[in-house]
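Example 9 (inverse folding). The structure is encoded as follows.
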């Protein structure tokens, strides 16, 4: 659906619901892509600016806190943007990765593993929890679960209510409260 295309007005409620849902999903995808593009560009600008003044050892250390203060952003957001640019110098626009995926992939030091997991995530449409499990699995072997043994439980017997004096608990409670 391009920006210049006008969708015809749906004639039924079901068609309306489906059209609104499609528009909502498309808008969410565009917003997520804009966020990823903005974070990548922010990381590029900061990274290249700090490289210009690399002869001054403390320049990079002072730049992020000052920039964060001036822009009213958390320093960790700017640092993550720089890490994002360094980890993914080129962001593939056709991939279905969102920011949650990239946040999981950025800390991986093994570039080959990071790119493999990114490609597999896009190919298999893994959610971020699925990707997190794969990353965890790549760091340490996942123990195999013990086989489940079928146990036959006896069928439950019918419960029968016990008769007693009604309101006894209520009377005791009221005596304690008053």
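The amino acid assigned to each position is listed next.
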């Amino acid at each position: 659906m391009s920006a210049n295309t006008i969708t015809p007005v749906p004639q039924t409620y079901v068609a309306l619901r489906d059209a609104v849902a499609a528009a909502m999903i498309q808008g969410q995808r565009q917003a997520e892509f804009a966020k990823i593009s903005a974070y990548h560009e922010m990381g590029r600008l900061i990274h290249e600016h700090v490289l210009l003044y690399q002869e001054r050892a403390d320049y990079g250390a002072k730049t992020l806190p000052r920039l964060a203060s001036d822009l009213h952003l958390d320093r960790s957001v700017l640092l993550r943007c720089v890490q994002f640019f360094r980890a993914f110098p080129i962001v593939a626009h056709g991939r279905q990765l969102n920011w949650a995926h990239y946040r999981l992939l950025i800390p991986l030091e093994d570039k080959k593993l990071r790119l493999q997991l990114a490609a597999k995530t896009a190919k298999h449409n893994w959610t971020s929890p699925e990707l997190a499990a794969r990353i965890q699995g790549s760091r340490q072997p996942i123990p195999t679960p013990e086989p489940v043994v079928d146990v036959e439980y006896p069928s439950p017997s019918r419960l029968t209510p016990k008769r007693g004096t009604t309101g006894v608990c209520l009377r005791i409670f009221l005596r304690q409260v008053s």
